[in-house]
């Protein structure tokens, strides 16, 4: 069944105190929150952006992401556990790639949303500057209230 129609996801069987099997389900919104929490680190977003372009070796990403090797390794492990990236080994190099092109699509949608939000903020800032400029002009001409 499609997850859009089913607002929960089976976690799989678990054993109760008496050894019986119990099915446990978690709300889909909770799983989504955990998924977005995984994306909630700038280094992980940068890694996913790089991998949206092509597969990268860990060494290639170090300079681009701009964090220490140990930290990059931790961030890659988080993405790997979340199922967002996969690895392949070639000689001494470990290469990372996205598990699905939908990850790149998600980043593109986020970029589009942010562009809209930020352009709205720029318009608001311009409006504020216009109003502030008018007030300063009125005060300079002795027209301000006071």
Automatic annotation (TrEMBL):
<keyword id="KW-0238">DNA-binding</keyword>
<protein>
    <submittedName>
        <fullName>ArsR family transcriptional regulator</fullName>
    </submittedName>
</protein>
<keyword id="KW-0805">Transcription regulation</keyword>
<feature type="domain" description="HTH arsR-type">
    <location>
        <begin position="24"/>
        <end position="118"/>
    </location>
</feature>
<dbReference type="GO" id="GO:0003700">
    <property type="term" value="F:DNA-binding transcription factor activity"/>
</dbReference>
<dbReference type="InterPro" id="IPR051011">
    <property type="entry name" value="Metal_resp_trans_reg"/>
</dbReference>
<dbReference type="InterPro" id="IPR036388">
    <property type="entry name" value="WH-like_DNA-bd_sf"/>
</dbReference>
<dbReference type="Pfam" id="PF01022">
    <property type="entry name" value="HTH_5"/>
</dbReference>
<dbReference type="InterPro" id="IPR011991">
    <property type="entry name" value="ArsR-like_HTH"/>
</dbReference>
<dbReference type="GO" id="GO:0003677">
    <property type="term" value="F:DNA binding"/>
</dbReference>
<dbReference type="InterPro" id="IPR036390">
    <property type="entry name" value="WH_DNA-bd_sf"/>
</dbReference>
<dbReference type="InterPro" id="IPR001845">
    <property type="entry name" value="HTH_ArsR_DNA-bd_dom"/>
</dbReference>
<keyword id="KW-0804">Transcription</keyword>
């Amino acid at each position: 069944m499609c997850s859009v129609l089913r607002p929960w996801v089976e976690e799989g069987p678990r054993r109760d105190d008496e050894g019986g099997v119990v099915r446990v389900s978690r709300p889909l919104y909770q799983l989504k929150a955990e998924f977005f929490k995984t994306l909630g680190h700038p280094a992980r977003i940068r890694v996913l952006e790089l991998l949206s372009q092509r597969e990268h070796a860990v060494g290639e990403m170090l300079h681009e992401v701009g964090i220490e090797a140990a930290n990059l390794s931790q961030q890659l492990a988080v993405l790997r556990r979340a199922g967002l990236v996969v690895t392949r080994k070639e000689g001494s190099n470990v290469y990372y790639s996205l598990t699905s092109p939908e990850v790149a699509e998600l980043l593109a949608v986020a970029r589009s949303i942010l562009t809209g939000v930020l352009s709205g903020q720029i318009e608001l800032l311009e409006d504020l500057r216009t109003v502030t400029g008018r007030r300063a002009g009125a005060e300079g001409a002795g027209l301000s209230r006071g």
